[in-house]
Design a protein that fits this description.
By secondary structure, this protein is an alpha/beta fold. The chain has 2 domains: 129 residues, Rossmann fold (3-Layer(aba) Sandwich), CATH 3.40.50; 211 residues, Rossmann fold (3-Layer(aba) Sandwich). Helix content is 45%, strand content 18%. α7 links the parallel β7 and β8. The longest helix is centred in the middle third of the chain and has 26 residues. The radius of gyration is 23 Å and the shape is elongated. The two termini are 34 Å apart.
Length: 356
């Protein structure tokens, strides 16, 4: 399994009383998994390091003086239940395996270690640990939102609400992107598909990528049905889509079709595209200064477009967000036109909150 593409580096704490082995695992994970790695040589120092370093995964020996691997695992489960834990040992026994399982170890590896297996396991557990942490945040905040962002072409939703989607993901909300075409008129369709996948992975979002004809998308019929199918599967509570006030015919068509297909969704809002007209009249302004850099990172996934589209330059994106802050406060804002709001956009205030 390759390193996590376009994603934050895995954070791994390696715990072993053999400093040479700990260093070996550290170098392996740094070079082959692109990980950030801290090392502790006993269980007590590992607990302190786990608090300061906040790892995604802990790799620990089972047999250590003082606080052994099983005792460390038990403490970690009480303090940071979402962290992934790999227990390793040179002396495999039924007793060790049972103890590790009872203490809720995620994986059990035997020394001498299989390098490929270690890397694969760490990458898998990093994803799992982050998924568990995301679910925990959502549970702590109450029932999270289910968000669907609909765009005509790859990069449309990231331009319009990339910061807002990053804020939703950070808050533990489920985020889905639906793109109606692969954008073949604006570049190589396969490249744009791969760029869409990379951006969705970076965001932690689910991606539906349809293959309607670029520049010929209809505002009814087949387009409505495609959106309805995704709405039925995802069951969103919030939908973002194009504004009808747009020069691009595909954008207008997707706006019309989404409005129909999401008629039973409580909150539907429209974002600004670079081709929006002067009639784009937002009434909701969501602060994204804490997520502006993540928005820029999402847009950097679209390398086939950034070289030729001035509106994708970081300066342009930042200046646009800065302009709208005159209405929403802070230093960066994404504007929205509200199509429907049955229960109030309380999410705007919730997303503006910083984690304690």
């Amino acid at each position: 399994m390759p390193p996590l593409a376009h994603s934050a580096a895995p954070r791994v704490l390696v715990v072993d009383d053999d400093p040479d082995l700990a260093l070996l695992v550290k170098v392996l994970l740094e070079r082959r998994a692109g990980a950030e790695v801290e090392v502790a040589n006993n269980g007590v120092s590992a607990l302190a390091a786990a608090t300061d370093f906040n790892p995604d995964v802990v790799v620990t020996d089972i047999e250590m003086p003082g606080l052994n691997g099983i005792e460390l695992l038990s403490e970690l489960r009480q303090r940071t239940p979402d962290v992934g834990v790999i227990v390793m040992t040179a002396h495999v026994s039924v007793e060790h395996a049972v103890s590790a399982l009872r203490a809720q170890a995620d994986e059990f590896l035997q020394k001498p270690l299989d390098n490929a297996k270690v890397v694969e396991t760490v990458l898998h557990l990093t994803e799992e640990s982050r998924r568990r942490a995301k679910a925990s945040r959502a549970q702590q905040r109450g029932k999270g939102e289910t968000v669907l962002a609909v765009g005509a072409h790859p990069d449309d939703v990231e331009i319009g609400v990339g910061g807002l989607l990053a804020a939703h993901a950070h808050a533990g909300d489920e985020v889905t992107i639906l793109t109606m075409s692969r954008g073949s008129r604006g570049g190589n369709a396969d490249n744009r598909q791969n760029e869409s996948l990379a951006a969705a992975e970076l965001l932690g979002a689910r991606l539906f990528l349809k293959d309607l004809v670029d520049t010929e998308i209809s505002g009814g019929g087949a387009t409505v049905r495609l959106i309805e199918e995704v709405v039925a599967e995802v069951k969103p509570s919030i939908v973002y889509t194009h504004s009808i006030h747009d020069r691009h015919q595909d954008h207008r068509a997707v706006s019309e079709a989404t409005s129909v297909a999401t008629r039973h969704v409580g909150t539907v809002a429209c974002y600004q595209s670079p081709s929006a007209t002067i009639d784009f009249r937002p009434t909701r302004f969501v602060r994204i200064e804490d997520f502006l850099e993540q928005k820029l990172e999402l847009l950097r996934c679209y390398q086939s477009q950034t070289a030729t589209r001035d509106y994708l330059s970081p300066d342009f994106i930042t200046a646009t967000a800065r302009y709208w802050s005159r209405f929403g406060g802070g230093t960066a804002v994404e504007p929205l036109e509200i199509l429907r709001e049955t229960s109030g956009l309380v999410y705007a205030d919730r997303l503006a909150e910083k984690d304690a």
